[in-house]
């Protein structure tokens, strides 16, 4: 079996293949990951039967951890989107924040809505509300767009049940610590969101948008046109219920409480159970219980989940092949050195994820691939347990933010729906995502210094 520097070169070539195949030749990341998995395994001298076994075990094993969780999360997000619950949550946040701070309101709305809803979809859903609020508060459209886009982005790569962070947690063996990952995701996302808000109010505010002079529907008209919306309680409960249950289960596990009540809480706090209960809570948002909603809306959620599941499974296969090589010995030598220790170790997954994100555009793909790559190295580097592994997920998520530009579908959603020119979008949106990624990794490293 290949060892040493040549093995490192093979791994780098495998990652380079994924980037070139997906970014330049537009090959779907699912196939790119699978081909890379086989290619790395064969080139590294892993016996052929073991390569096949690693691919199958890696794909199936990861699905066993997070498959239902991802499906349940996407169904919740789709129901929130279609029922108007996402808009209701936005309205509640605006009431709390007030119209005197419209950009802050947009940032908070984005950070909240993007926990269950993909940021691309969420930006489209909230765009009309953003325009109306900007007109009502006399706030520049570009500033409002960046505030919303960066608020959405902050939680998209950091807070489960968004699929990317869940996949990363599963890859590195942190599925049992999902409550801790959620907690740190929420903590790190606050300064990350505020970094985007700072950019929106200090840089994007100076960028003109042509559509600014065009009349738009009023805030009240948008809510009225949407029709009957659910109550605030019904809108929030599908998100809050799973988070509270997972968090409570994590506390019971950490405190090692025993007894019947603790046993029940551990069951309810299991991510699969908590997210399925969130789905049931989301059913209360359905305007009618019929084929359109129970089959149609749920079916749309399943379609959204399918791509994420395949990509996540392929990432698990890639990671399993890497583990089957002798990379652990190489990493052990690096980890025993003094160059990269403590919080500085977090820079490795951050830089890998940032390079992948910048090169191929998908934050989810960057999260999946990076977590698969670094998983075999963590135990050798002494990174074990709930808090250290959760902070590794945060470091990968931070890298998966930097940067959003022309090869990222989200960049084009923000550009087209905000009316920004491409050159202005680079200044307003791309640079904001760079600032967010840097803020997130600095916050993560500070937490490591304080807690680990």
UniProtKB/TrEMBL annotation:
Organism for this UniProt entry: Rufibacter quisquiliarum
Transmembrane segments: 31-52, 59-80, 104-126, 177-200, 235-254, 261-286, 306-327, 339-356, 386-406, 426-451
GO cellular component: plasma membrane
Source taxon at top rank: Bacteria
Protein name: GntP family gluconate:H+ symporter
GO molecular function, one term: gluconate transmembrane transporter activity
Entry-linked InterPro entries: Glcn_transporter
The keyword Hydrolase belongs to this UniProt entry's keyword annotation: no
Keywords: Membrane, Transmembrane, Transmembrane helix
Coiled coil location: none
Keyword Transmembrane carried by entry: yes
Pfam families named in the record: GntP_permease
């Amino acid at each position: 079996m290949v060892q040493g520097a040549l093995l490192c070169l093979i791994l780098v070539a495998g990652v380079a293949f994924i980037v070139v195949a997906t970014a330049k030749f537009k090959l779907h990341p699912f196939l790119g990951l699978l081909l890379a998995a086989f290619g790395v395994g064969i080139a590294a001298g892993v016996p052929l039967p073991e390569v096949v076994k690693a691919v199958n075990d890696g794909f199936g094993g990861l699905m066993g951890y997070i498959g239902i969780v991802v499906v349940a999360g996407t169904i919740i997000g789709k129901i929130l989107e279609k029922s108007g619950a996402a808009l209701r949550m936005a309205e509640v946040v605006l009431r709390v924040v007030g119209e005197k701070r419209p950009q802050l309101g947009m940032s908070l709305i984005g950070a909240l809505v993007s926990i269950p809803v993909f940021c691309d979809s969420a930006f489209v859903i909230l765009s009309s509300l953003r325009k109306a609020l900007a007109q009502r508060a006399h706030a520049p459209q570009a500033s409002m767009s960046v505030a919303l886009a960066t608020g959405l982005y902050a939680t998209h790569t950091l807070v489960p049940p968004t699929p990317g962070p869940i996949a990363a947690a599963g890859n590195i063996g942190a599925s049992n610590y999902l409550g801790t990952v959620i907690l740190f995701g929420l903590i790190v996302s606050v300064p990350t969101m505020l970094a985007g808000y700072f950019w929106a109010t200090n840089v994007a505010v100076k960028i003109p948008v042509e559509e600014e002079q065009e009349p738009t529907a009023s805030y009240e008209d948008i809510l009225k046109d949407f029709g009957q919306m659910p109550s605030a309680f019904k809108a929030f409960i599908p998100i809050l219920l799973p988070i509270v249950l997972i968090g409570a289960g994590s506390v019971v596990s950490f405190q090692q409480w025993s007894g019947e009540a603790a046993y029940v809480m551990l069951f309810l706090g299991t991510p699969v159970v908590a997210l399925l209960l969130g789905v049931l809570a989301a059913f209360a948002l359905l305007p009618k219980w019929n084929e359109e909603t129970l089959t149609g809306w749920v079916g749309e959620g399943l379609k959204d989940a399918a791509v994420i599941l395949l990509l996540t499974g392929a990432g698990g296969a890639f990671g399993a092949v890497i583990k089957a090589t002798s990379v652990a010995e190489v990493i052990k030598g690096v980890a025993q050195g003094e160059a990269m220790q403590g919080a500085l170790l977090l820079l490795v997954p951050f830089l890998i994820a940032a390079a992948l994100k910048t090169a191929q555009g998908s934050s989810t793909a960057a999260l999946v691939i990076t977590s698969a790559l670094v998983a075999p190295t963590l135990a050798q580097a002494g990174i074990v347990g709930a808090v250290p592994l959760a902070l590794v997920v945060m470091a990968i998520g931070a890298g998966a933010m930097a940067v959003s530009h022309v090869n990222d579908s989200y960049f084009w959603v923000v550009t087209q729906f905000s009316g920004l020119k491409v050159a202005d979008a680079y200044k307003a949106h791309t640079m904001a995502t760079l600032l967010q990624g840097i803020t997130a990794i600095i916050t993560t490293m500070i937490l490591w210094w304080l807690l680990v």
